[in-house]
């Protein structure tokens, strides 16, 4: 699949055989840092969630992504996973691939409801997996960046507010985030 400029994409992958890919806090932090490094100049991160055995990204491609450098964004996403895998393998004295071979990504149409549904689905992952009792308890997602208006963040909140109509009011954001989301793109349950 090719990336188009100025579009939203849900990007996700999980560990081979559903294996754990994030063990320690440093693993999560390293991967989040790699997201920012690799996507800079190609896409804005709108939402993310790093789970023990998988991850989700909602990205918005920059207008520099076109047919000429489309493969660059694909390579950057591949580098994100491969560089993390190398560091993970060194840290845990292991070899081999860590993630499933095919990174999954789906273009989301510019339908505001579909975009907001994906946005909230990403943040609800830890709650649905019963890893936490409240979404804000999960340290490895962008939920708290929106809830607390975090200054140092890898997400572009401006795009979320302007193009997806994510509520800027803390109370409305919490209310909308807690609604039950049925997000079925045909992807496997994680």
- The structure class reads alpha+beta
Number of helices: 6
Measured distance between first and last alpha carbons: 22 Å
Task: Kindly provide the name of the CATH class.
Answer: Alpha Beta
What number is the mean pLDDT? 89
What's the arrangement of strands in the largest beta sheet? 2-3-1-4
| β-strand amount | 15-25%
What about the largest sheet?
Answer: 4 strands, antiparallel
Return the domain count: 1
CATH T-level topology: Alpha-Beta Plaits
Write up what this structure looks like.
By secondary structure, the protein is an alpha+beta fold. It has a single domain, classed as 2-Layer Sandwich (Alpha-Beta Plaits), CATH 3.30.70.1290. Helices cover 39% and strands 15% of the residues. Helix 1 packs antiparallel against helix 2 (70-91). The protein is globular, with a radius of gyration of 16 Å. The relative contact order is 0.19. Residues 185-190 have low confidence and may be disordered.
């Amino acid at each position: 699949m090719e990336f188009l400029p100025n579009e939203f994409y849900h990007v996700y992958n999980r560990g081979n055989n559903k294996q754990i890919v994030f063990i320690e806090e440093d693993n999560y932090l390293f991967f989040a840092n790699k997201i920012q490094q690799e996507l800079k100049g190609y896409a804005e991160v709108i939402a993310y969630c790093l789970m023990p055995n998988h991850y989700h990204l909602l990205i918005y491609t920059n207008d520099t992504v076109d047919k000429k450098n489309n493969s660059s964004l694909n390579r950057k996403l591949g580098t994100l996973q491969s560089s993390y895998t190398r560091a993970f393998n060194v840290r845990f004295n292991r070899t081999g691939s860590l993630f499933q071979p095919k990174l999954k990504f789906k273009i989301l149409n510019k339908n505001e409801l579909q975009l907001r549904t994906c946005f909230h689905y990403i943040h609800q992952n830890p709650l649905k997996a019963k890893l936490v009792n409240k979404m804000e308890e999960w340290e490895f997602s962008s939920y708290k960046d929106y809830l607390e208006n975090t200054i140092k963040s890898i997400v572009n909140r401006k795009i979320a507010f302007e193009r997806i109509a994510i509520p800027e009011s803390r109370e409305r954001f919490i209310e909308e985030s807690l609604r039950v989301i049925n997000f079925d793109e045909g992807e496997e349950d994680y």
